From TrEMBL:
PROSITE patterns linked to this entry: AA_TRNA_LIGASE_II
Official protein name in the record: Asparagine--tRNA ligase
The keyword Aminoacyl-tRNA synthetase belongs to this UniProt entry's keyword annotation: yes
Native source species: Desulfovibrio ferrophilus
UniProt lineage: Bacteria, Pseudomonadati, Thermodesulfobacteriota, Desulfovibrionia, Desulfovibrionales
Entries under InterPro entries matching the protein: Aa-tRNA-synt_II (IPR004364), aa-tRNA-synth_II (IPR006195), aa-tRNA-synth_II/BPL/LPL (IPR045864), Asn-tRNA-ligase (IPR004522), Asp/Asn-tRNA-synth_IIb (IPR002312), NA-bd_OB-fold (IPR012340), NA-bd_OB_tRNA (IPR004365)
One of the protein's GO biological processes: asparaginyl-tRNA aminoacylation
Top EC class for this record: ligase
Reactions it catalyzes: tRNA(Asn) + L-asparagine + ATP = L-asparaginyl-tRNA(Asn) + AMP + diphosphate + H(+)
Amino acid sequence: MNRIKVKAALSAKEPREDIQINGWVRTKRDGKGFAFVEINDGSCLSNIQAIVDEGLPGWDDMPRVGTGAAVSIDGELVESPGKGQKWEVRAKALRLIGEADQESYPLQKKRHSDEFLRSIAHLRPRTNKFGAMFRIRSEAAYAVHKFFRDRDFRYVHSPIITGSDCEGAGEMFRVTTHDPAQPGAQSYEKDFFGKEAALTVSGQLTAEIFATSLGDVYTFGPTFRAENSNTPRHAAEFWMIEPEMSFCDIHGNMDLGEQFLKYLVRHLREHCAEDMALFAQWVDKTLDATLDSIENDTFVRLPYTEAIEILLKNAKTKKGKDRFEFPVEWGIDLQTEHERFLTEQHFKKPVIVFDYPKDIKAFYMRMNDDGKTVAAMDVLVPRVGEIIGGSQREERLDVLQARIQEMGLPEEEYWWYMDLRRFGTVPHAGFGMGFERLLMMVTGVTNIRDVIPCPRTPRHLEF
Ligand code: 4AD
Ligand code: MG
């Protein structure tokens, strides 16, 4: 018997004898003297149908073959006379591998709400929607690596436990240890073998080390933020991709961000067409138009100061009501409502806002000649808002030192970061893209918890 995946079976060129399909039953329909069993093995969205005739080996187990059960079927791959599928399996034998009790199996044939499925996150990848989501997620990770490899970037593994706070925003999870000989003993504040340590909020500073040695690099790994913002766009644990390029300024950085998003959308549309179609049909009817725009439209490049002017001009709706909850003035950090207005309503395409006020940005961003703004950039896309945040870095030692002092940061902790400016400093730039925000963008899913295999929330920590 040749074991094959459902995906391969459904795209076969010709009939095949002696195949074996292993998977989980989606539905079973009983006929007179036979049964139709729809099997999904996770290799693709579609199921394969098997016809099992009465009296075949394993037939006696049929009453226990229900939705969710694991089965193995030996048989022939034959052209299907029925509509809707080209191939089906004529079973020669069926083995019930793992039964699923029909009374208690939570995934019934009807559509379940996302909220309900979040409460059974260990079973939700067995549904069509979440199966599709996690196949897309897997393919997207591959596409990220392919994009950078094709451009000769090197992959750097930045540490997860760190002593430095990259964003300077004080939103870190502490790492503590405790003595197993004293269960329940209090952990101590400075507890990484006597030092303070935390989970990383960004791999950027590590990427800068390697950009100033290997040239063009990127990181791609888990990232942690202890921000207690219970929003549909923020997670405590998420994955971030951070390219960093030497001999590159903010404009080269914007170019890369735009090319990256276009590439990922194109790749996923080509390689995950069946799964993407599910989202376009059931989740977001405007998805294809949005993705067409990302692929084909040139992104708008808009200085922050002009963005504020546009928002101020549009602060009132046609009916004279306040359009925004959060008042607009030069100096504010753009809120999601502002970002979405710019990209969804005003320009109707992706927008890159750059040159933000220095006071709302991190210490490492390069100071512009105006002394008021820094060479920061955010890429905004419809519905998601900010998907990429990045900047040109401050490569001038004296300016960086002044900035660190001005912001009251512990200068001595950045001695190694200063070394990168002391020895062979170069203009360099990079950005971070939230991997989950990308998945939200390409599927139209609006809650970040529905694009993460095991979302980390206080209620979901068991697995
Ligand atoms: O804008 P952020 O905070 O930038 C940085 O961390 C820089 N060090 C990146 C760099 O220049 N190398 O985060 C970058 C992106 C955001 O645009 C967003 O897509 C995502 O990371 N992100 C989050 N995604 C999910 N949950 C959160 N809590 C996120 N915080 C940021
Ligand atoms: Mg940001």
